[in-house]
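Chain A, query sequence.
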Amino acid sequence: MKFTVLTVNLHKGFGFFNRRFILHELREAVRAVSADVVFLQEVLGEHELHAARVPTWPQAPHYEFLADSLWSDFAYGRNAVYPQGHHGNALLSKFAITHHTNHDVSVEGPERRGLLHSVLKLEDGRQLHAICVHLGLRESHRQRQVERLCQLIDSLPPEDPVVVAGDFNDWRQRAHRMLSRCAGLAEVFVKSYGAAARTFPARFPLLPLDRIYVRGASVQHPIVLPRRPWSHLSDHAPLAAEIRL
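Chain A, predicted structure.
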């Protein structure tokens, strides 16, 4: 059993400095990878002002627009809510999503964060737990959020495979040891190359903020994506990997 995963921060469908709406280009780039499971962060579920001002704004929520006909199932976890609308994490899946839960891991202050946990039914009948992550900007917040992530994973059946992917904002790379110790997770790029992939900023990547962690997978192969068009589509470069169970 093997499948491909992709994780990308959508930056709410806008390019650098929010000057240009590029969700249609993002959709084509995501479709070109043809991943079985797509982890998305900073996905707009609704925004009344943008919808009124942008001529090409889709009528459907952005995660539905991206799923289109290629991903039959999708899940959305609303994190930040404001007068104009809301945004959060989303998961697109070619496998059936039997259920999903968005766990609020926000700490004090206005920054809202969540862990979107989806349970997928694989072709061989097994369950796959997919957790889409977007952690906080402050290190003290991230530490508490990683602890919550460990608690969530420890509550899952030990025989079920787990994939955790997204934007960890962990520029000091302190999450690796915590997730390995408490949850038995291994990061795909660290295991293959000895270091996490640099993903931010996308045009000149310096910081390894985005990750793909797995548990219960026998082989993980990172997939090198082309620099174009991704370097002009988001402030984060995407990551992809082939997972074999």
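The two ends are 5 Å apart (CA to CA). The CA atoms of residues 82 and 237 lie 27 Å apart.
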